[in-house]
């Protein structure tokens, strides 16, 4: 293996450090601004709960009766997290930040505040991965523009962006493996790189504490270190192996690994009875590897439901760039190829190969940085060619558009409404298609709610969800029937100033003894006069009513008129008359509005229910809006939207948005300002050879001529 020196000079260290910091700050601010602020799966809830228990209870045990936790029995019979302890430990500062900022919100929202803060962990991790990817490529000798391009493509056009909004363990595992690679490379090329080797070994084993499946990378990272440490290669056709140097350097990496392996082994031994036993130890190979290899490979590569080429299109460019990359960097090219191939082959056979609850193939996130690194070879080989730039630009734009679909629409909204096999393998049922449709439908829905069309009537507040038909409980109900919650308000937007005719059909289902007052109808807050209201008692006992009245055209000047059906409230469960435990008004069977002989369209613009307080209800409030019978859906999967509709006091919501949005914006602006010199086209500076100082003659001259007289 013949080694070639980098074609590009080593960059100025101070400037490179500034570029790496700028890249991290810019992407951290960007990711934080586009964060969701919540969890998507029970894996995340498990990692968070372990963090919470370590801080609040000073224990590693998890409650056995808590909702949404993936636990396993330990040697003492108590419940412990299936996941490793690494991410939960590193998330403690984020949890503490959440507890510090929780007083900005109501006291019952502490769980929201701490989960929101912990959910910011992976945006920071993913930004660090982007910056480290740039630093690694520069360490390999790539030009600054190419290194910056690959890092930006990874951060914007691959699933790194949507997965960075989750609290899954894959992004941190990928960062630690990439850090081990960077440390091994730097530690084996610098004379005083022993500390880097120790750090690399520690990072490699730390990845196991986050996700035990990171053991897939151990043989490839170890072989890479061995090749680098021994300086194995061919010189003049003869293989040379500096085994003493290799023994010394690998021992430093082993020392770093032991620094993490010892506490991790003690953790596993104390909880599960063996240093090598993890929370996943209960799974046998027969129950784990149940997917046919061909099916899994098809699903992870080219299937429209989870295929990597669809969800991370730059992977196609990286495949094309592997050959030129390998020709320059033999050991690095083989490392990327082996590690990525091992992950494909392993996860293609597991029962949950798809890693649902995420955008694209979740488990391949661990090897995604290694899969994208060879893209530098393609960019370097085709840089002068215009057609190459157009091709790369088109694929990158495609990748960014795909990620925008993933960050705009919650993954679970479609997963909970679709069939697994169809979603994974049928192009028409692909999440790519569904998310685009969802986004368009919800934008149209909320545009109609915020800006109602003329000649329409809109339910704006005071109504519960529509009731399904008794004989068709699984079908989506219409606008009516539904309960009011005390004062149901309808906003009418007439097309002309002709009089309006309004007909209300409703039932007062309170017990007879409680029906002492009759519901009142108000027009723009003023009760309708008895002489103007035609009432018909449908049941003859004051339970069912039809109220009809006319609103003259002179009654509105602002383009709308509000009709309010106001009544006393009652709780069926408190009275022993049903299971419904909430305050209800009257049961509205129908509302009809006519103008100039034509019926107005009635739809709803009701606010979302406030954010629930319990973790389980809050989880479904984020991730499953089917409970509103598809009439009260979230617009986008974004922290700002959830904060706006959570029902918090306005001052609290504004304070939270200012603090969080301000910190994110400062990160982004600081990164852009600091890194303005890293943009393509900026002049590259290199280490110049040291100037040789002219030696001064410090000896006194033996003869000094006299100055002329």
Give me a quick take on this structure.
This protein has about 700 residues and is α+β, with helices and mostly antiparallel strands. Helix content is about 45%, strand content about 10%. A hairpin with a 2-residue loop joins strand 3 (about 235) and strand 4 (about 240).
Task: Give a structural overview.
- By secondary structure, this protein is α+β, with helices and mostly antiparallel strands.
- Helices cover 47% and strands 11% of the residues.
- The strands form three sheets. Strands 5, 6, 7, 8, 9, 10, 11, 12, 13, 14 and 15 form an eleven-stranded mixed β-sheet that branches.
- Strand 1 (71-73) and strand 2 (79-81) form a beta hairpin.
- The longest helix is centred in the middle third of the chain and has 30 residues, at 243-272.
- 40% of the residues are buried.
Low-confidence stretches: 1-10, 684-690, 698-709
> How does the major sheet shape up?
11 strands, mixed
Number of helices: 26
The overall pLDDT, averaged over residues, is 88
- Count the strands? 15
**C-alpha-based Rg, rounded:** 32 Å
Helix share bin: 40-55%
Structural class: alpha+beta
Distance between the termini: 75 Å
Q: Which band does the percent of strand residues land in?
A: 5-15%
Bulk shape = elongated
Strand and helix layout:
Elements: H1 13-33, H2 42-56, E1 71-73, E2 79-81, H3 86-90, H4 92-101, H5 110-118, H6 121-140, H7 144-157, H8 160-163, H9 170-187, H10 194-210, H11 218-230, E3 233-235, E4 238-240, H12 243-272, H13 285-288, H14 293-301, H15 308-311, H16 314-328, H17 330-347, H18 368-372, H19 375-382, H20 386-408, H21 411-415, H22 420-425, H23 431-450, E5 456-463, E6 482-493, E7 500-507, E8 520-523, E9 526-527, E10 534-537, E11 544-551, E12 561-566, E13 587-595, E14 598-599, E15 601-604, H24 615-623, H25 639-645, H26 650-674
Parallel strand pairs: 5-15
Antiparallel strand pairs: 1-2, 3-4, 5-6, 6-12, 6-13, 7-11, 7-13, 8-9, 8-12, 10-11, 13-14
Helix pairs in contact: 1-6, 1-26, 4-5, 6-7, 6-9, 7-19, 9-10, 9-11, 10-12, 11-12, 11-17, 16-17, 16-19, 20-23
